[in-house]
Amino acid sequence: MSTPDPNRVLIFDTTLRDGEQSPGCSMTQPEKLRVARALAELGVDVIEAGFPAASRGDWEAVNQVAREVRGPIIAGLARCNREDIDKAWSAVRDAARPRLHVFLATSAIHREHKLGMAKEQIIHTAVEGVRYARSLCADIEFSPEDASRTELEFLREVVEAVIEAGATTINVPDTVGYTVPEEFHEVFSFLKKNVKGADRVVFSVHCHNDLGMAVANSLAAVRAGARQVECTINGIGERAGNCSLEEIVMAMKTRESLFGFHTGIDTKRLFPTSRLLSSITGMAIPRNKAVVGENAFAHESGIHQHGMLKHHSTYEIMRPEDVGVSRTHLVLGKHSGRAALRDRIKELGFELTDAELARVFEDFKALADKKKELFDGDIEALVLRADFGASGPWHLEGLHAVSDSAGGAMARVKLRHSDGRTLEKETRGDGPVDAAFKAVEAVTGIDVKLRKFEVRSVSMGEDAQGEAVVTVEHNGRAYRGTSITTDIVESAVRAFLEVVNRIESMRATAARMARNPEAEAAVTAI
Ligand code: KIV
Ligand code: ZN
Question: At 138, which CATH number?
Fold first, then answer.
């Protein structure tokens, strides 16, 4: 892909691939689709939707994004072999603009300890892989994994050979987050200057954050000629994460007069997209996180507040509204109407259909009955947690939980199944939450091991809403559920129920596959 504007930097988002593969960030297929849609609205140029050869679930998720999300290029990752490339191609080929991203490690450490391959074999395998990928797809990205620890001259040779074989984007990864800005600037300057065919490809940078320099290293690469940055929302990714999309984009925008670079990102959507991902993954955003953290635009000290009152530029290098953060906190109440809610939701950066708004308005009225004042955090939580599709068979009909100071607790839970059954159980436990979880297990017949249970407040005031995040293990797989209400026991039970519904959906899919062996065989053969 060529960039006619020499200062336009392409944003390649890998939240759904490098981000999703990190601990605690896995997403279901509907969640991946929701994130992909949000990324398209954000204006990213490329969505790396996953690694189709990794599992059937990954293939299905990439394929659904390719079929349903329009706007960005949709990329699928593949190792340098025909089987992986075929799987990636069958997953992305339905996209309006598909890309194959093929990678092979090149550093001496990886050649010797991981691949057991000599330099010549690496070049041969890379060239074969790229040539084959190019016979299927016109848009080919190649990544020499662990490039930052690869001998420069060998890196040049590999890159030159894959350009000759048909690669259109050359991505240079700092796979282990080892490099520093000056060094990476030199690597890109060297490649741009010395690689034959460098002018026919887009150079891309992909940095990990092990030493906290992923954004700085990416910026250095852009200054040396890279015109694509690979990054993730909230910087999620392997180990310490990847280059954070919101930080690199705002660094280029805020210092445009220094660097002259710009992107196609609608920066007003940064905050809502960051919140959406955090709510889906349950991975909280640190309060002091640059650009999207809760404190990013808060001014506590008297001197700073005084300066801000005189002029915001005294202590503010970005306007909160430019990244989609609203300055107003106090919003709506019980007497607010649908139009006011629609306006507020829009100001917070969300676009809802009339049907979705109607659904949120119902929840809004129910919440406003319990809570005097509804803050931005409450409205966001209503939108983010709204169930716009079918969420599974079990629905909470009633909950009664009590505990006494001697440490005993009892919970009675009433659940309705979508097949019409209504079941109720009463159990005892070590606390009201434990008792209620046991009651849900007793009703649904699904046993899980609780791995993590967290509760945090999402808005202000004594009657603030509590977000519960429940992580469990069932048959060796991890499942996560979240919920937000003003009552933390109810939040916990709803989050637990989301987990149970996920397990039920997995079982239903497995049963469907077993009843239809042909469909099963077709998917396995992909
Ligand atoms: O970090 C890395 O090297 C990668 C490649 C697959 C691009 O994620
Ligand atoms: Zn990576």
Answer: 3.20.20.70
Strand order in the sheet with 477-485: 449-457, 466-474, 477-485
Ligand 1 proximity of 145 Cβ (cutoff 6 Å): yes
Looking at the fold, whether 37 and 123 belong to one and the same domain comes out as yes
Lowest-pLDDT choice from 57-66, 208-217, 262-271, 379-388: 379-388
Q: Is 383 exposed, middle or buried (0-12, 13-18, 19+ CB in 10 A)?
A: buried
Angle at 263 between CA 259 and CA 267, to 5 degrees: 110
- Domain with 316 in it: 302-385
Q: Ligand 1: which of 17, 77, 143 to mutate, judged by most atoms within 8 Å of the beta carbon?
A: 143
The residue-averaged pLDDT of 165-189 equals 98
Residues 168 and 141 in one domain: yes
Nearest ligand atom owner, CA of 174: 1
Ligand nearest to the CA of 143: 1
Domain stops at, among 214, 247, 281:
281
Place of tokens 């690199």: 248
Same domain? For 196 and 65 the reply is yes
The vertex-494 CA angle with 493 and 499, nearest 5°, equals: 95
Residue whose entry in the numeric block shows the structure tokens 């694509």: 228
Tally of structural domains, the chain: 3
pLDDT tens, residue by residue, 475-514: 877 787 888 888 889 989 998 998 898 888 777 766 655 5
Q: pLDDT by residue (tens digit) across 230-259?
A: 999 999 999 999 999 999 999 999 999 999
CA 208 to centroid of ligand 1, rounded, Å: 9
Answer whether 0.85 is exceeded by the pTM: no
Q: Does residue 352 sit in the same domain as residue 424?
A: no
Say yes or no: CB of residue 232 within 6 Å of ligand 1.
no
Q: How far apart are the first and last CA of the chain?
A: 28
Ligand 2 center–CA 98 separation, angstroms: 20
Same domain, 369 and 420: no
Q: Are residues 52 and 171 in the same domain?
A: yes
| pLDDT higher than threshold 70 for residue 331 | no
Q: How far is the CA of 366 from the centre of ligand 2 (A)?
A: 44
Q: Is the CB of 267 under 6 A from ligand 1?
A: no
Atom of ligand 1 nearest to the CA of 18: 8
Which ligand neighbours the alpha carbon of 148 most closely? Answer: 1
Is residue 219 domain-shared with residue 96, that is, in the same domain?
Answer: yes
